[in-house]
Amino acid sequence: MDLNLVGKTKDIIVDFHSLPKRGGPTSMTYDMKTKRALLTWLRGDLIEDIYMFYMNPYTSEFQEEILLLKTPIGLVVQDVQAVYDESNRQVLFLIRQNDLQSIKIFVWLIIVEFDTMKIVEKKQINTVIDLSMWMFFQI
Question: How confident is the model over 54-63, as a mean pLDDT?
């Protein structure tokens, strides 16, 4: 699981309650100002789609579950990474899916507003050039 802590270190919570059985966690971005955690989670029987939701780290209470990315038949989620930009309060998700033989790899870049979970942009990329064009990686 990928954990991103943003804010002052004195506000870091080190005691998270156990999470209920809802599939597998893939990323967690915790905002110390609002004391909210934005999680992504794999859910499904045969095909695991990626959902995002808020979690109160003090009570493990979940809120506002939203489908982030549907996994097509024949693909599996290989990796999910979250990069948080505190200046505009957006999270960039890098999601890698591949087929069962690991021959084809699909990479998705999804920008989500942290406070509303609104998907701002969703794009499948094929090259590093596509990745460098995103504002998160411009200097």
Answer: 80
